[in-house]
Specification:
The protein has 479 residues and is α/β, with parallel strands linked by helices. The protein contains 17 helices and 17 strands. 43% of the residues lie in helices and 15% in strands.
Length: 479
């Protein structure tokens, strides 16, 4: 078969039929002969045996001359991985890269090369698929007539089954097992690895008695306070859920996570001290007494002090921040450090007198890690927030503000009792548990961390608008 190039000359087309989808050795031998014969990438058609209709004639690839040539080890590793990718163009792309390396041994160092970038992305996808196979293969017991055999069903995205067989042989060396997939099945009898054609899920066993015990255990250790759905599904895509016994319970566990978390917190609070009652606090003096009784000592943050809220105790607008910083801990007052100074500036620009506000924090003690002589801010946990939440609720009850403005995610969690995404609820009026109205915006420290001047200017203007809107709504709601 010949092909006419745009500038006129005819070239012979070579067809290479590899034995398997992951046939690295066959690709390497054919590619070596083609490169040595000077056959350009556009003159080669790569196929796999049984997947070509041979409508057109073509020449077989030339045999290697035996002289050979060297390529960087990095390319060999890349090629061994990429041949396992599902992309039908993978063999041709690798040959095109080899063609470049024949003329420029440093071609693998060109990070701006679109071809190399595509191959690197394919390599990454194969490695990710292999990781999923290691993590999500679940064996179930069955009797195959020769005794106990452990069988698993898995659906890889790429041709990785042979590539990963060694991992399972090493890990389950003393166990008879089979891994069934739609394209290829592998079997280990304790000494020899064998293969068979692809199977269907119906060929794999269903559950076994051990799974019920495992599901009960999984439910008992499931911690609703640590649930991050996006992170979980990114690491464990739903396509693998049907193959794992524990995932049958995930829907129920996620649906009840918030209620279970609240129950855990209340149980912990009740067990911690009889002082944590739900009785309302009737005066500022009582609040101060209870605060010192409940939180007067904290061995985990020795050297810190409780930082009480301050300001107008009849304020229409109440601000709740995250926690005291190093300077707030030293002064014993909220918002006096860099973030507090920026807040004062933003309030002034919004036309709001800080003396008309009541300002406090969700967490009342500076949480830090010691690094040399410096105390570095540590992010409060959900437990930290809940530990002091009664205090914030008591302040709200005593102040009776028209609106409570949460500065940042920690404060939002404190006043709403749940995790919220600032970008989704920012500036919206929220009905708060126990009554009252809330609103959420960013914390001033966020503005201090923005490196880009344009973004900093934009976000500061938006923060000022949030303050103005909160003050206006607070006045209207308190009227």
């Amino acid at each position: 078969m010949t092909r006419i190039l745009p500038d006129g000359p005819q070239i012979d087309i070579h067809r290479v039929a590899l034995e398997r989808q992951d046939d690295f050795d066959g690709w390497r031998d054919a590619a070596r002969g083609l490169v040595e014969a000077g056959v350009p990438p556009e003159a080669v058609i790569w196929t796999v045996e049984g997947q070509t209709d041979e409508l057109f004639g073509s020449q077989p690839p030339p045999e290697p001359s035996g002289g050979g040539f060297s390529v960087p080890n990095a390319f060999i590793g890349l090629a061994k991985t990429v041949v396992c990718h599902r992309d039908p163009e993978r063999f041709g792309l690798l040959y095109a890269m080899l063609w470049k390396l024949r003329r420029n041994r440093r071609a693998m160092e060109d990070r701006a090369d679109p071809l190399l970038d595509r191959l690197r992305r394919m390599e990454k996808e194969v490695r990710r698929d292999a990781h999923k196979m290691h993590a999500f293969v679940r064996f179930r017991e069955m009797d195959d007539g020769n005794g106990e055999r452990m069988v698993a069903w898995f659906e890889p995205d790429n041709h990785i089954v042979r590539r990963e067989a060694g991992f399972f042989m090493r890990r389950f060396n003393n166990m008879r097992w089979s891994i069934l997939t739609p394209q290829l099945c592998i079997h280990w009898d304790g000494e020899t690895l064998s293969e068979s054609p692809g199977a269907t899920k119906a060929d794999a066993p269903g559950g076994d008695p051990v799974e019920e015990t495992w599901k009960t255990y999984y439910k008992s250790i499931f911690n609703p306070a640590r649930v991050k759905v996006k992170a979980m599904t990114a690491e464990m895509p739903k396509k693998y859920w049907k193959n794992m016994p524990e995932t049958e319970a995930i829907g129920e566990l996620l649906a009840t996570a918030q209620a279970r978390e609240a129950a855990m917190i209340e149980t912990s609070r009740a067990q911690e001290s009889p002082l944590f009652s739900t009785a309302p606090v009737s005066s500022w003096e009582e609040l101060a007494r209870l605060a010192r009784e409940r939180h007067g000592a904290d061995p985990s943050n020795s050297g810190t002090q409780l930082v009480f809220g301050e300001g107008n105790r009849n304020a229409k607008l109440m601000l709740v921040g995250e926690q005291p910083g190093d300077e707030e801990d030293t002064a014993g007052r909220p918002f006096v450090g860099p973030a507090g100074q920026l807040l004062d500036d933003m309030l002034e620009r919004a036309g709001i007198e800080r003396s008309n506000l009541y300002v406090t924090n969700a967490v009342k003690r500076f949480k830090f890690v010691q690094r040399g002589k410096k105390r570095i801010h540590a992010k409060p946990t959900t437990g930290d927030i809940e530990h002091y939440r009664w205090w914030v609720e008591a302040e709200r009850e005593l102040v009776q503000p028209g609106l409570t403005l949460a500065l940042g995610a920690t404060a939002a969690r404190s006043i709403t009792g749940k995790t919220v995404t600032i970008s989704k609820v920012r500036g919206e009026e929220l009905a708060l548990p126990g009554g009252g109205t809330g609103m959420v915006t960013i914390h001033p420290s966020y503005l201090l961390r923005l490196p880009d001047k344009a973004a900093r200017t934009e976000q500061r203007a938006r923060f000022i608008d949030d303050l103005k809107r909160a003050a206006d709504r607070a006045a209207a709601l308190a009227a």
